[in-house]
Each structure stands twice: as C-alpha cells, then as structure tokens.
Amino acid sequence: MEVLPKNETIALREKHIGKSCQLFYRKDPLKILVGKGQYLYDDKDEAYLDCINNVAHVGHCHPDVVKAGCEQMATLSTNNRFLHDNIVLCAKRLVDTMPEELSVCYFVNSGSEANDLALRLSQIHTGNKDVITLEHAYHGHLTSLIDISHYKFNLPGGVGQKEHVHLASSPDYYRGKFRDSEYRREDLGHMYAQEVKEICNGIEEKGRGVCAYIAESMLSCGGQIILPQGYLQEVYAHVRKAGGVCIADEVQVGFGRVGKHWWSFQMQDVVPDIVTVGKPMGNGHPVAAVITTRAIAESFEKTGVEYFNTYGGNPVSCAIANAVFDVIEKENLRENALVVGEYLLECSQILAKKFEFIGDVRGVGLFTGIEIVKDRSTREPSKEIASYVSCRMKEEHILISTDGPDGNVLKMKPPMVFSKQNVDEVMYALNGIFKEVKETFEFAIAPRPRSDSCSKEARKTMGPSLKEAIIKSI
Ligand code: PMP
User: Which residues form a coiled coil (predicted)?
Assistant: First the structure.
C-alpha cells in the first residue's frame, strides 16, 4: 500500500535514512509496492521482471509461505528456550539435505550473523585466528565479516587488510591470475588450490595457525564465478592439513539454485565443516542458519558459554523456512532451475556469438553471468557497457544487476519460478540493447538514441522461440 507520494518518500529518505544505504538506479529509483512470483510492481502498477532477487526464492510473496508465516504469527512467536516443533523440524529438513557429517544447526537472523557465528565456531574449534578468504568476496556486514570481505575492506575508504586475514586469488578462469587462455581449464583448479597451500604454509611459517578457509560455493559478488573442477577438494585438504576448518558460504547460492543439488558445494564433491545459509531460506523473511559437525558443536559446548539469540529459530521464522522447503519440493523448483537455467545459458551463448563485446558466458542452474569486455583478445572489462545495458534493461522493465571486481558482469539470479518465457523476454530485450551498443558505442562510450527493437511493446509480439530467431539473425 502506498502511504506517501513518491517525491515525499524520496524527501523523507534523504532526511532520515543514512546515505550509506544506497538505492538501486539512484538517478531514478524504483518505488516497488507489490511483489508476485517473478514480478515486482511499482507505484504506477507497472510490472518489472525480476532477475536479481535470489531472496524471493520461491517467488515474491508465495501464498503458502505467507500463510505459514501469518498463521504462526497469530499463534505464537517466542524464543527458542521453549520447546517447539518448528525449529526441530526445520533443523531436520536442513540436515537431511546435507552430507550426514553436517548434523547440528544453529538458527540466526541473517547471512551475516551466520558467517559471524561460523567464524566464532572455527576459532573455538581450532584455537587459531587466521582466515583465508578470496579476492572480491563478500561475507556480510558485521565488523568481523567486513574484515574478511575484500569486496568491502579494499575500497578506498575501507578498513584495509588486517593481519589475520589472508587473500587467495579468485579462481576465475576468464580474468583471474590463471586463465584458460594460457592454461588448460582442467588444470586451473589445482593451480588456484596450490596458492591456498602456499598461504597455509606462510601462516605456519609465521608461527601462527590456520583458523578457517571461507568461500562461497559459486562466487556471486566476485562476478558469477563457477569454481574450477577439483578446486575445493584440494583446498579443503590443504586447509585441514594445516589445522583449519572449511566454511562454505551458501547464503546466496544455496537452496537448490544450481538445480542438480541442494547446495552448490555439492558440485565440487566436498563436505565442508561448516555451512552457512540465509537469504532464500525465508523468501524475504529474516531467517538464516549455521550447520556444522558434531565435533565442532562439541568444542563450542565445552566452552560452557550459552549461545542465545533472541529471534534465531523463533516459531514464525521456522514455519516460513519449512514452507519454503515445501514449495521447492511441491513445485519441483530445483528441476525448473535446471531446465530454465540451461535454456538461459544456451540463449546467452547464442548472443555471445553475435556480439563481440560479450567476452564470456557462464552459469549453473539459475545463476548466470555475462561478462562484458572492450576487447575479446585482451579481455579488458567494460563497466560502461555493462552499466548502460543494466540501466536500459530497467527502462524495458527488466531488472538485472552488474557485479564482479570491475563491475562488468551482467548478473542474473532470479526467483526459482523463472520460466523459459521469461528467458525469452530477457534475451529479446538484451538482443535489442546489445544491438544499440554495437551501433553506438563502437567503444567510444557515447550512447545514441535508443532503438525500439527491444521495447516492452515489441516483446509482446515476439515469436514463440527466441532462440531460433536469434540464430537466424546471426
Ligand atoms: N554471504 C554472502 C555470500 C552474501 O551475499 C551476503 C549478503 N549479500 C551475506 C553473506 C550477508 O547476508 P545478510 O545480508 O543477510 O546479512
């Protein structure tokens, strides 16, 4: 429901909300009033196709999730010092999707809280403090996590790299330290893992000890990077040999987004010591969790310090998380992520054949990145083109974001109810906007008046198979 006209909302926000909280599309921000499935509706009741909201995992305001939350809210919401079935059932559902070693859960309210607790557990279990993290990684907004989030601490106004923090290269085959243009793809996992081994050795040589290695199981803020084959297996072996534990941050990429598995780390055939989950878990409601081994949980217990979190695992949050699990299963959303994700990747690859400035296309399930470059041979990034495309897509009422160290990766991680027809809509619009880029930029970066070929209106009349249409036009 709209309470204030948009200009008043903007004025109040200017006055009372900290300027560090930034809006999407700052020049012309969206005022979204309603969400349904994969669509968002603004103050003029205009629909936007949402390709960025991995949090609204089973679709914005899914009726089953809303009902579960409302019913539980009308019945009881209290802390987890009382027995309640919702929390134990939610814990069981989580561990049932994980390797059996991961059998103990702690419930928290956000991905940041989950990662902070993961660090605390690691410190207690290993007695060490040094953390290995990846370049360009983001693990949350708490002070402990800004310290291990290169994405934040490395900014000009950031806190810088602390002594206990060690950076490993982002295992990016396209623009990382070791590239598939120079080495065989199948060797890259080993090469990047060797670097982690050297970091572990360096920590030991300094007379310190490894506490943890933390990484997302697919790198989202890092630019939609899919880890090279065999990478985590080798990394985990090195880290464990050095006495550290391995944390898989599944806050963005978990809950079946990859389709074939529930969790992205399963693609690498490893068992982490700690897994952190959040965002999609509550479909928009704040609920998150840490899942770990009995041994780590026992080290924590032995400290004798109680873990209490007022809202963590409350009956409402757990009712919601359980409903999210139900919907994923009932609506076969993992299967949908697989099928629609493959189609999205195929169509994006077709576009890449057509447009020189698409350097790379990659993805698994409903997690896709299109990397924009100025020059395919040098792989020099083009943030300008990527930002132009993302802004133009908004004008076409499709929301996609940009990310990666150079802001040149078009990022898509839509709600899991995304359909093939939605992919067609996205591709139709991208095709039109890419044509504009081709005609306009000639890499001089001065946008010309836009064409109508990708407009919302034109999309209504597009043919049934966009893929064929694009192939014909190549
Ligand atoms: N880990 C990852 C990988 C994330 O993307 C985020 C949020 N963007 C977090 C942790 C922190 O989660 P939250 O914002 O819920 O605290």
Answer: none
